[in-house]
Specification:
The chain contains eight helices and four strands; from the N terminus they run H-H-E-H-H-H-E-H-E-H-E-H. By secondary structure, the chain is of the alpha/beta class. The protein has a single domain, classed as Uracil-DNA glycosylase-like domain (Uracil-DNA Glycosylase, subunit E, 3-Layer(aba) Sandwich). Strands 2-1-3-4 form a four-stranded parallel β-sheet, sandwiched between helices. Strand 3, helix 7 and strand 4 form a beta-alpha-beta unit. The longest helix has 22 residues. It is globular and about 45 Å long.
Length: 220
């Protein structure tokens, strides 16, 4: 039996996150604009690094160019459309607000202190949603769940929350599937062998995703 998050409790958590100004009070941000999206019946959670400039305006996750790439990956991983992804996947990030631009022109990487200020938000989201699958996108997310490992030892693998490699047959939930960051600023996918790893990760995701969307893995 699937235990669904209490919608009223989830709505309260969302209100608290959307009203959060911790990083403003600490002097890291000029203004807060937390971003998240999800429903109490979601069994899949997608965790990114931090919202971008477009997301800060639209106030929905994965709306910019990187988001379009990611949604294309999700269709390769078993979803029928971006609309299905946005309805069936709880989407959040390590830090909830756009951190601003960095000195090199790309988005600034949130500091360790900012990550810590936001940590309890993600902890509560995980505890409330209790996902069967966590898709971990980007280096900040990998550091949270699978620290100290190079990307080529993560992408293509399936793990549990203890960081141990597992098969899809394990009874432990959630399954954790790392993906690289879809940003064009990343050079990791320029290498053919790394694109092979991404292909493997998306192929391994497909039966997990389809099983969850069809209800076959509920309660497994």
């Amino acid at each position: 039996m699937v235990v669904m998050a209490n919608p009223a409790t989830l709505a309260q958590l969302h209100r608290e996150i959307l009203a959060c100004t911790r990083c403003v009070a600490a002097g890291y941000l000029r203004a807060a604009a937390p971003v998240l999206s999800g429903y109490a019946d979601n069994r899949i959670m997608l965790v990114g690094q931090a919202p971008g400039a477009v997301e800060a305006i639209v106030r929905l996750p994965f709306q910019g160019r990187s988001g379009k790439v990611l949604m294309a990956w999700m269709e390769r991983a078993g979803f029928t459309s971006e609309n299905q992804v946005r309805r069936r996947v709880y989407m959040t990030s390590i830090t909830k607000c756009f951190p601003g631009k960095g000195t090199g022109g790309g988005d600034r990487r949130p500091s360790r202190a900012e990550v810590e200020l936001c940590r309890s938000h993600l902890d509560r989201q995980l505890a409330l949603i209790k996902p069967d699958l966590v898709i971990a996108v980007g280096g900040l997310v990998h550091e949270r769940f699978l620290p100290g490992r190079p990307l080529d030892r993560l992408v293509g693998g399936i793990f549990n929350l203890a960081g141990e490699a597992v098969s899809t047959r394990t009874q432990a939930r959630p399954l954790l599937v790392p993906l690289p960051h879809p940003s064009g600023a990343s050079r990791w996918l320029n290498a053919v062998e790394n694109r092979v790893l991404l292909d493997r990760a998306l192929r391994r995701l497909r039966p997990i995703v389809r099983g969850l969307l069809d209800g076959q893995l509920a309660g497994a």
